[in-house]
User: Fold these one by one.
Assistant:
Number 1:
Amino acid sequence: MTTTPTSSATPLLRIRDLHAGYGRAEVLHGIDLQADKGSVVTVIGPNGAGKSTLLNALMGVLPAKGTIEYMGQPVAALSLEERVMLGIALVPEKRELFGTMPVEDNLVLGGFRQVRLRNRQWRDQLDHVYTLFPRLKERRAQLAGTLSGGERQMLAVGRALMSRPTLLMLDEPSLGLAPLVVQEIFRTVDALRATGVTILLVEQNARAALEVADQGYVLEMGSVSLSGRAEDLAVDSRVIDTYLGAAKAR
Ligand SMILES: Nc1ncnc2c1ncn2[C@@H]1O[C@H](COP(=O)(O)OP(=O)(O)OP(=O)(O)O)[C@@H](O)[C@H]1O
């Protein structure tokens, strides 16, 4: 019996020469990126580098040029809804919850893919989300708009998980959160990888992101300036000087 080397397995996501922007202003100038199945891939970089633009282009909410292959199939021409149906989910930086609706209703709305598939497993998925985030279960009847920052982030991630994504894209999940809550969010990322979900994690908290990730990309001014194994990037002098130095000194 022969085994297929990991390097020749089809990656879950393969991006080649991706260009995207707003009107005539190009923000991404030809991005190449790959995410293997069941891995955590992080994209770090300064403000305005184009990290959110990259996730929005992959989700299909922003027009883009280039190749996006998901499970070996081209998806660049697909709509946002078609991408969701294929198992791609995005937790946007602004979290975008329904503030006047209870926690549980926000979660159930996230399961629309299951409903479309006439899949009754959404109740199991709700239980799965409550197991990951017991705090959400405790607060299932509370209005989303009254949650703390950390609880909102948990709800945003939980809602995305309701669609049982294969590829989960997180845009700055640690933004504005206290260190202990950040740790909890990153522990969740680790736990999700263990369940086989592939995660594309955009972060300004480079230290925490490189600790949890398998692979990393440094995005600067719309181009990938460095990429490699996260553990190698974490000891790269350019990454330390630019993205880890301040945190190291703390
Ligand atoms: N809707 C928009 N219209 C026009 N320009 C935009 C829009 N959204 C973002 N930009 C610009 O695109 C560039 C990249 O922004 P983007 O939000 O992708 O960066 P980022 O790396 O995610 O930054 P941050 O870490 O600050 O969130 C910035 O110059 C930004 O001003």
Number 2:
Amino acid sequence: MSSTGTDGPVVRDRPVAQAVNVTKRFGSTVALSAVNLVVRPGEVHALVGRNGAGKSTLVSILTGLHAPDDGHVTFDDEAAPAAADRDGWRRRVACVYQKSTIIPTLTVAENLFLNRHTRGYGGLIRWPALRREAEKLLAAWSLDIDVRQPAAMLSVEQRQFVEIARALSVGARFIILDEPTAQLDAAGINRLFGRIDDLRAQGVTFLFISHHLQEIYEICDQVTVLRDARHVLTAAVADVDRPTLVAAMTGEDVTLPQVAHRPSLAGAPVRLSVRDLATTSGAELSLEVKVGEVVGIAGGGSSGKVDVAEAIVGLARPARGTVVLDGRTLRPGSVPDALAAGVGLVPQDRHREGLVPALSVAENVTMTVPHRVGRYGFISPARRDALARQTIADLAVKTSGPQESVGDLSGGNQQKVVMGRALAGDPKLLVLIAPTAGVDVRSKQTLLDVVADVRRRGATVLVISDELDDLRVCDRVVVMFAGRVTGEWAHGWTDNELVAAMEGVGFDHV
Ligand SMILES: Nc1ncnc2c1ncn2[C@@H]1O[C@H](COP(=O)(O)OP(=O)(O)OP(=O)(O)O)[C@@H](O)[C@H]1O
């Protein structure tokens, strides 16, 4: 984009942000190798790449959290602030991460002006003024949120808007959104995209990270692809078709294979019986699943699907009802009991329930199956590493080896370790909650192939997700809306009907 003044020299739009030949190493890992990125004013610029390609590392350099080993960053063609000048960085750029930086116990207004309270005489915080300022700020960006409510009450979507507003209020006009749609349902994604459009019209520029390529086509103007720490492509989104984009990301010419479907065995016995389950949030489910059957539980953000899944695996204690696995009634609210009965679990929140970041890949993969890697209380490091190597190979985990700390892996590779751990016990029942969240387009296929694989070995699988690709591997999909099962769809549903069902349309279709 450029504009010409009639009475002056050509004025070029300076890049809002630029990374110039940026290289970053972590020990022997090269996370970025001479990477360039140019983000121009008013664009929504997609940053894509496979898990471990270097996207988060580039973000940490663009936000001043890490210093590059080589190369530099500019904003509006000016050198980036010094590393210690955090306020300087905050005035230029902000990143909305998947993990919230909002403090739940404070109100929205307090979060918006954290450490910048309007003070009156004697240094006392002037609460009414603070509230008014917060309201003014949100109104200026057409954000409709009650500033007096505690931030804990905010939905994921509102929390993201508050973080964006906070960044705008300190002057930043360049916002990085790191997989912003990962925890939103279809309606939430639409609203987010609406806001992005509005803010862009008001002069805000975005860098948008997502593994959902359709989102790139929907909302972004430019796309930059990183592969194996290198910059491989920057182009207008309109000029790159999907196969070209996937090829740029993977380095291969790929047509992704369709997930093989095998109908469940007609006479197979029931393995899982969920009887009159009710969660403390009021969601209800009764369900029987056969040996070798793959059943999806689908629904939007407030459908209750995750609540019932968490009650099934013992992550939450149900208000009532029973869960019976191969004739054994599971102890309510006990994950250890579920694991002992043969449940393998990929939880929704890998940060909270999934992984211990300081431990190695091998320790994380095997932590729920000590009996498989040792005897009489002694762990055999060799057996543990062998099992971990198997996981690394099967799931194509990008890591330097079984000894690497899980905390040093990229987000998508951490998710693969969580899957590896769920599989390590050779489960009878595999419960996968949003299993491909944050996982790249190619790895998604690997993870979904796992489902077909464990089913072949006779396991029963529950897939809790609103991702159509995740649900496609299922023999049938149970749809929940507002805490109730509203329909059931056999394999072969169309995208439109399932999306409509998840949004609460077509209740009668049971
Ligand atoms: N603190 C760290 N210590 C060691 N290695 C690291 C660290 N942070 C990142 N890496 C490595 O740098 C590489 C790039 O990781 P990065 O997190 O930038 O990838 P990504 O593209 O964001 O992936 P994902 O899509 O999975 O989030 C990976 O090999 C990762 O293991």
